[in-house]
Design a protein that fits this description.
Number of helices: 11
Number of strands: 0
Order of helices and strands: HHHHHHHHHHH
């Protein structure tokens, strides 16, 4: 064991800690539950996020996805299979590998369309999935392109866990959760939101209220591409800021 890398030594310490183990079980259950619910909706041929307008960028995508024939329930079956594999200890690594590309796709889609329905949950699910993959590194290492494979093999459940609580790790988990929420709330100039009324609330009673309302109409009523609406809003906002700065300097000179 003396020739192990620092990562392998750290990994062995993590695997012997009871609290890291509890957290891996928590991640497995939460991820499995999310995909079972989403998978059943697709297998039952029900539209996901049914209340979302078809003009909304995500609503248009989900409507098109719903009309893809057997591809739609196929995704549902894949999600449920991945969830079940995650819950079974012997197949958890396979489940995590199947789960990962699906949830990464959902995450990128949510961020690209600024969809608040999964803007926060999808990145957190990606991180939880990564945690499970790292937790099962002793199995994954055999398919990774390493020149040398650590000698400790497949780890068994320790006879006695270390009960030391990893404060720094869970503080990091809380900070990550808060940061993702802050990015959702403050990371973008404007969000399409799920309805035009919620969208208009973002700049109500501000100097950007008019152009904010125009953006919301662009997304929710005119069926315009989201990027086009965002670009138009950005240009108008810069022009407003420029005019405001010019007016400020002009009146300041007069005084």
């Amino acid at each position: 064991m003396n020739n192990l890398t620092k990562f392998d030594q750290f990994y062995l310490e993590i695997r012997s800690n009871r609290w890291y183990w509890y957290f891996s079980i928590f991640c497995r259950i939460i991820l499995a539950y999310a995909f079972i619910v989403a998978g059943i909706v697709k297998i039952m041929d029900e539209k996901f996020a049914n209340g979302l307008s078809e003009i909304h960028p995500m609503g248009a995508y989900l409507t098109a996805l719903h009309h893809t024939g057997y591809y739609y329930p196929f995704i549902g079956f894949a999600q449920i299979i991945a969830a079940i594999l995650l819950l079974i200890p012997r197949t958890v690594t396979l489940g995590a590998l199947l789960y990962f590309p699906i949830i990464v796709n959902i995450c990128i889609l949510s961020l690209a369309l600024r969809f608040e329905g999964s803007f926060v949950t999808a990145p957190l699910m990606v991180l939880a999935n990564l945690y499970i993959l790292i937790w099962n590194y002793d199995r994954l290492k055999y398919i990774l392109p390493f020149k040398q494979t650590p000698i400790y093999g497949i780890l068994k459940k320790p006879e006695k866990y270390n009960n030391k609580f990893p404060f720094l790790f869970f503080i990091g988990v809380i900070i990550t959760f808060v940061l993702i929420i802050l990015i959702f709330l403050k990371g973008f100039d404007i969000m399409p939101r799920n309805s035009i009324s919620d969208c208009k609330k973002q700049y109500i009673n501000t100097k950007y209220e008019t152009i904010g309302n125009e953006f919301c109409l662009c997304v929710h009523s005119k069926n315009t591409i989201l990027d086009t609406c965002l670009e138009d809003f950005s240009k108008k906002k810069k022009q407003l800021d420029k005019n405001r700065k010019y007016n400020y300097l002009f009146f300041d000179d007069i005084k």
